[in-house]
Amino acid sequence: MTKPEPAYYGHPLFYKIVEELKRLHSEKSRQYATTDNPLGNFVRCGKMISKFLKPSIDPVLAACMFLMAKQVDAVYDMVAEGKQDTYDSLDDKFSDISVYSIIARIIIAEKRKEQNEHPNRSSDDTAGRIGGDIPYNTTRDTNPDHDTYCTGR
Fold first, then answer.
1. Residue 150 is inside which H or E element, if any?
2. How far is Cα 15 from Cα 9, in angstroms, rounded to an integer?
3. 131 in a domain, yes or no?
4. Containing domain of residue 68, as a range?
5. Residue 111 in contact with residue 128, Cβ under 8 Å?
């Protein structure tokens, strides 16, 4: 008796993972996309981040801002479409935005610290770029435990 031809070749776990990814893709698409435009979230985020794709903006800061923009887009979409029972909750999205905001502040602080430590660095050196004239911390932080680079003191 001959062995039946398998439906798929390769490792069986590969196909299990593919099924998991199909489920995840569907859940995330339900959250981020619309039936009219399954790539709408990419189009919207692309428009938002196109403003960050300038030579004068630090690519690390631009990456952080892109990830934050993605979360902001998700919030707009969840609220506008009245989406509930999504993979990530609205609270999760606001938490993500808060975390990315803090990370952006850290990136800016690290760049300023680096610029203060290396004042002779060329202005067109990508490691020294921040993001143009970003107004940063217009109020004075009086907490002595905060890093002076984060507070602008």
1. helix 148-151
2. 10
3. no
4. 12-120
5. yes
For residue 79, tell me if it sits in a domain.
yes
Q: What share of the chain is helix, strand, coil (3-state, %, to 5)?
A: 60, 0, 40
CB of 71 within 8 A of CB of 96? yes
**143: CB partners within 8 A, 6+ apart:** 151
| pLDDT per residue as tens digits for the range 75-112 | 988 898 888 888 889 999 999 999 999 999 999 999 99
- The total domain count for the chain is 1
Residue 114 lies in a domain: yes
Q: How far is CA 103 from CA 71, 111, 143, in A?
A: 14, 12, 19
Give domain status of residue 58, yes or no.
yes
pTM score = 0.59
